Amino acid sequence: MLKNLLFILVAVSMTASVFAQVPRAKIVSEPMSEARLTTLGLSTNSVSSGAKVAANGTYFYFSPRNIANTLPVTAFTFTLTSKPAGSTATIENLLPTMVGLKTDLVGNYVVQLSVTTTGGTHDTTMTFVSGNFVGVGGFDGIAGTFPKCMTCHSSNPTFSGIFNRWKDSKHGLALKKEMTGTNTHFGPTCLKCHTTGTDHNLALVNGGFDDLAAANNYVYSGPPNPLKWDTLRAVGAGVLVNTATVGCEMCHGAGSQHAAAPSAANIAVNYEAGACMRCHDSPPYYRTFNQFAQTRHSVAVWSNSFAQTAASQNNSLGNCIRCHDAKGYINYSYGRTTNTTGWTEANQTDLGCSMCHDPHGTTNPASLRFTPSSW
């Protein structure tokens, strides 16, 4: 009897040990800036925020990861299991541990990843959305028509509040301020980061500022002067204005698919640093991301103790997710808690720029987020 019991205990222990080593695949959607393209030796000429929604004709970049344990991935396969009818897009092998997907039609692209470690094999899928730019709507008094973002979101007090902060922020005024200012170096090449949807640097037609400008025979040339915004604003009865800014789609992805089928699945909420990297990583002049990457904040630390029961979830220092997760800190800044019941490392959001700096703008220096006592 005792022998049988020992045998059962050993068998259960061995089974648990085997299952503890089974991998869990994660598709890591990689951000890409001009500087990173150069560093990696890639010739795609396509930057990426690393979000699940991007402009049609641009690249998504993926790498494999095992998040179940510390066992390294010994083999992996990416497969494009679904794409829009008529698409000829394929998975491209770019680096030993990175692949690319250049979309060619508006629609959904489903990518499957299979990873193998010495502990076994695991598969996962992720859907990526390719869309065209629509413009923000309502900027500088030019309302625009559907499907611009604010033609739907203006009726929601939360979105209206965000819009009202953003329109006076550095992102909102990114072009207007520079083209009417005193920075004599501000020229045409700056538009790819100071407007919505200007090619960066892959030549495309997807409804961005550069496409609207070309269709209306508008060409910006430096140096800036106080009248240049008025000239732009008059083009085509304001057709350029709602992309002549760092608008919603620069961070949330091109919005045509979200407008056609309103859903969280068709728009990106990207808290990771990659959303900022494509424009704020351009050495030698713009080194913000490079500086951030050297800090400990750039690597999120995970512990299973971060997953707490509902009874213990609060905003005290005992709730680690308050500071070890971007969304957790943003919730904390609004006085809200984050439900971490059953969380694993897969649920954690990296500590990106927007964790501390509100991209929609605040009255604090560098648009730092408010603390709960300030609300």
Properties at a glance:
375 residues; alpha+beta; Immunoglobulin-like; 3 domains; four-stranded antiparallel beta sheet; four-stranded mixed beta sheet; 14 helices; 8 strands; globular
Q: Could you explain how this protein is built, in words?
A:
With 375 residues, the chain is an alpha+beta fold. It has three domains: 23-131, Immunoglobulins (Immunoglobulin-like, Sandwich); 149-253, no CATH class; 295-374, no CATH class. 27% of the residues lie in helices and 15% in strands. It has helices spanning 2-20, 34-40, 149-153, 157-166, 174-179, 191-194, 209-215, 228-234, 248-252, 256-260, 274-280, 288-293, 321-324, 326-333, and strands spanning 25-29, 53-55, 59-66, 75-82, 91-95, 98-102, 107-117, 120-131. Strands 1-3-6-5 form a four-stranded antiparallel sheet, with no helix packed on it. It has a four-stranded mixed sheet with strand order 2-8-7-4. A hairpin with a 2-residue loop joins β5 and β6. The longest helix is centred in the first third of the chain and has 19 residues, at 2-20. Residues 6-18 have low confidence and may be disordered.
Topology:
Layout: H1 2-20, E1 25-29, H2 34-40, E2 53-55, E3 59-66, E4 75-82, E5 91-95, E6 98-102, E7 107-117, E8 120-131, H3 149-153, H4 157-166, H5 174-179, H6 191-194, H7 209-215, H8 228-234, H9 248-252, H10 256-260, H11 274-280, H12 288-293, H13 321-324, H14 326-333
